[in-house]
Amino acid sequence: MHHKNLEAWKESINFVTEIYTLTKNFPKEELWGLTSQIRRAAISIPSNIAEGCGRTSARETSRFIDIALGSIAEVETQLIISQNLGYINSEELISKLGKINALVQGIKKYLSKVES
Q: What average pLDDT does the structure give for the chain?
């Protein structure tokens, strides 16, 4: 399984680009806080998919897919906080994140069948 062929990786790369564009408009006092945190968490999604696909066993790959799923939950939380602070309207991004989550869950399900 090559990460560049996975829809989850492609969608999450696009998502990171959107996050970077969006967070350019966050207040300057958030540069080292929420802006940095949401960017790092978003980058973690495709990065862990890629790293997992570079591993030699389904079990190892699955571990990195789990990390990507954790990062998805983290980004969703940060988007909600950003909305609560009035920085963004997060509905569209949360919807895109839901699609990415479903794709990554599909990889996890596939790997669980390969492992057993």
A: 95
Q: Residue ranges of the domains in the chain?
A: 3-115
Q: What's this model's pTM, rounded to 2 decimal places?
A: 0.94
The closest alpha carbon to 41, from 21, 14, 69, 62, belongs to 69
For residue 36, give the nearest of 51, 23, 47 by alpha carbon: 23
The CATH number of 3-115 is 1.20.1440.60
Give the type of residue at 86.
G
> What single DSSP character describes residue 79?
H
The one-letter amino acid code at 25 reads N
CA dist., res. 86 & res. 106, Å (int): 33
Yes or no: say if 36 and 44 are a contact pair by the CB < 8 Å rule.
Answer: no
What would the mean pLDDT of 95-115 be, rounded to a whole number?
94
Give the burial string for 91-104 (b: 16+ CB within 10 Å, else e): eebeeebeebbebb
CB 12 within 8 A of CB 45: yes
**Helix/strand/coil (H, E, C) string of 101-115?**
HHHHHHHHHHHHHHH
